[in-house]
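Forgive a beginner's question, but might I ask you for the amino acids of a protein and the tokens describing how it folds?
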Amino acid sequence: MTKRTTTFLGGCLCSLALIACGSDSNDSGTTGESTKPAQATDAAGAPSSSAPSGAAPAADGSKSQSNDAKSNTDSAAKPEPDAKAEPAKGAVPASNSMQGSTPGTDAQGAAAKPTTIDWQGDIRGLCKGLKTKFPGDEACIPAPPEGEGMQIHIGPSNWDDAEEVAKYVLRPGEESSECFTVTTPNDKLIHYQTSTLSGRAGTHHIINTMYAGDGSLPQGSAKCIGEGGGDMANSLGSLQGASKPYMPRLSVAPEYAHVGRGIPAHTRVSSDMHYYNFTDHDIVREYWLNIYFAKDEEITEEASQIAGLGGFSWNRTPIPPKTDKTYSYSCPIKGDGHILMLLGHYHAHGKHFTASLKRKATGNIEKVFEMFDYMEPAQFEYNTIVQNPMFAEGSAGAVTGRLPVYDGDVINWDCHIVNDSDVALKYVNEVKTGEMCNLWGSSIGITPISCYLQ
């Protein structure tokens, strides 16, 4: 596997969850695009850590169904904390560059159809006229209707410009993790609860982090945090990211209708894109992110990130070949609140990922999350409208219902890693020659969880 500039932002997925900190890039140059809302009607994205959703395909590929089931953790030792219920081939128009795009057009400059698009459904393949020689044109999604959302696009801005396209091309056998910086097109503070992210094949993760000011991060291709690009002190938190090519828009649970996330006007966003090409043909690193506006007056609480990163010691003492071991990590919970969503992340040598809660009041350990296939990283939400798959050997699953947590509880996560290669594995953004054991998610009521563990 040939590798290009390999960087990481505190480890894969540092923004997936509102994420939280849920994949890839190239080695030189970048043209990101922030698309202003398109004119049309209708509203409503992808697993966002801003607000939980439901009634959409689960991240493990199973179908989520509406359900009023109560979480089997609702009976935890303490009373549940109160929560408020309730263009084709050719140049893309210049207006559709990083500075924003013309209202009434999608990410490829094609007019949106106001009456035919179900914005709550699968909108991939609805960009008019996009036809390239690369796989994944069907991943393109149109921008939301004007006044109902905005779109961020990173990828070629002119398909007739070979030099521009080359910035994003990944050759067979190449793998890259690179950061690209764009500016959001909103002219004022907006709030959102849902989003849709769609990327071309080869996406391993996309981590979007917002930053205050505009001096520390130059527009375009830039170094990731930890590589001399930007200052974490200026971080405003995460923006919706991805743990695989397609992250669908979900529905907002009524008990979390007041929960969202704010995006200040013209915010700089660093997009850490990890892509790999295990095929025999060239691919392009490109994605489209739709952010759907929520009513400002209805958002009274912001979700916080859960970022549990395990495995940093592997950079000092790599996982030796032939190792078969389960690595365990934990992080304390401070305050009473609810976990809204959890997402697991490891690489090709990861075989089994679990997350559990150890209750302070009883000492009981409750498994709340499980996944197996690294190619289908699971993301599960905990609310009254999503029916998560039950736990079953070899299949991703989670408890169903709201997931309350209390001060003094502990969140644990474990990764069973089998290094059946001849390479010692470090904590790096390399799918087959590196490993991670990361738990991402979002919560309300508790102190943001941020644990960087050895």
The first helix runs from residue 162 to 166. Residues 1-33, 35-107, 109-114, 226-230 have pLDDT under 50 and may be disordered. The chain has one helix and 26 strands. The helical segments are 162-166.
